[in-house]
Prior knowledge:
The protein is α/β, with parallel strands linked by helices and 313 residues long. The chain is 35% helix and 24% strand. It has helices at residues 48-58, 73-84, 127-132, 134-138, 151-163, 180-184, 193-200, 207-219, 258-271, 276-289, 303-312; strands at residues 11-15, 19-25, 40-46, 62-70, 88-95, 101-107, 113-118, 142-145, 167-170, 188-189, 224-228, 234-238, 241-245. Strands 5-4-1-8-9-10-11-12-13 form a nine-stranded mixed beta sheet, sandwiched between helices. A four-stranded mixed beta sheet has the order 3-2-6-7. Strand 4 (62-70), helix 2 (73-84) and strand 5 (88-95) form a beta-alpha-beta unit. Helix 1 packs across helix 9 (258-271) and helix 9 (258-271) packs antiparallel against helix 10 (276-289). The protein is globular, with a radius of gyration of 18 Å.
Amino acid sequence: MSNPWTIQSGKICVLGSLNVDLTVTLERFHQPGETITGKDFHTFTGGKGGNQAVAAAKLGMDTLMIGCVGADDNGRMYKRVLGDLKVDTQAVEETDEAPTGVALIEVDEKGENRIAVVPGANALLTCDLVSRHQDKLMACDVCLMQLESPVESVNHAAALLRRAGKKVILDPAPARPLSDALLFLCDIVTPNETELEILTGMSGQTEEQAIEAAASLLKRGVGDVVLKRGAKGAIWVSRQGARVIPGFKVDVVDTTAAGDSFNAGLAAGLVMGFPMEDAVRLANAVGALSTTAAGAQAAMPSMERALELVEGA
Length: 313
């Protein structure tokens, strides 16, 4: 990695979902109609937006969260957690119209997960809410967005950011087909292998197929594609070609927020002035370390710990 300790300052904005995760650990996933006994249960703060904001803050980044929670105990608890981590929550609005979002998560003994989400207040992250906080949004250098919020709001924010010359990173999850108009507004799109297939309609099972599918997104207007491949690392695809960037071996406990942590690491690297390849390598390290404890946010690492993994590889 090229001189990672000489860093630039900047601010990351995360626009997206805030959920409370109800997590049960199981020996195995059950079949339809089958009842099995869980091994453990925990309540965690989660949601793809909240996860990315927490991961960025734990990396020491100046972080703004834009989102919506219910005017309920879960919402107040979540804002307190973010505040304790020094995440700027001035743009996290409370509503009486819906409860705070909830995710029901099953984790098996291999660390794999299955997730069902009830959006709740996240559905009220509207274009108007984004516009109310436009000044705060424009004060950021890189904005992370996902698809657990209304796509119209994601598109609106991306358009505002693009006009201002800010960098937009879209995590296309949960996966859905996206318009060329939205993809054109994205500097970087970060699908996993399943999401890449849904976005493109092309198989990404082999490395060659994945690169071809990612390249098809470049033709639709995306600046760069960073394909997340879990323990295998990532593939960075740009108009200059493709680069395979290996992952890191760790003892996996829970993969729930690995992709969110990866995105925060990528944004952090870019804000700090890393070349793209080094930023992806940092993202691989942050994503790997996030899997080493239970819960979406518990194992998200510090910058020092992530760089130690990178430099020790």
